Sequence to fold (238 residues):
Amino acid sequence: MRKLSKGFGLIEIMVALVLGLVISMGVIQIFVASRGTYTTQNTSARMQEDARFVLSKMMQEIRMTGMFGCLSVDNLKPASGSLTVKPAAFNNPILWNNATSTLTLITADIGGSGGTPTWTVASDCQSSTTLYAGKGSLGAGQVAFPLRQLTYVFSGTDLKVAVGTDTSTSNQQPLLSNVRALNISFGLAGTPMTYTTAITTGNAANIRSVRIGLTLYDPSGKVRDQVYNVVAAVRNRF
Fold:
């Protein structure tokens, strides 16, 4: 009498293969979805970090615009190598050209962290103020207030910045890429405060706050455009 052979039949093997394939496809799909979620979140976090860095920098500079030291710079005390008349740019330390998307700031560089200043105000904070182009020198009892001219330019998909009075393309340094739009409006003094994008030498003195809208995009298309908004008060206008 022959013994019955034991093992898996063809149907059982095919069923096992199909089940294994289904499970493998499910695991692969979960892995792909998890990887996509990670990539999207990482890209979004990177965009948010870039926007936070740029906007915090711009807000800090905006808050210090128009801070020309402890005394007025209208009456300058002459000294060797100093300027006898304040630059015309001092009259309007915040200017926005809506046509060219250019924001110009004359801002205090407290601590000298910005390198060589555009101007230096030297003052004894009692009776005399001297203004120098560049770093300048201090007299007895004087305190230095370094100033910088910053020009932010939105060109193409890049946000660039130029330090100093030379605002040519060769002096513009890339600050942030993948920028879809840069929108800036200004709060003007009044009751209530009104916002406008048209800033001229006539109404620049009435600026009390600056609203910045920055739109970033993902070049890979995995994340939709992200819009970031901040409002900075101009400290030296209140």
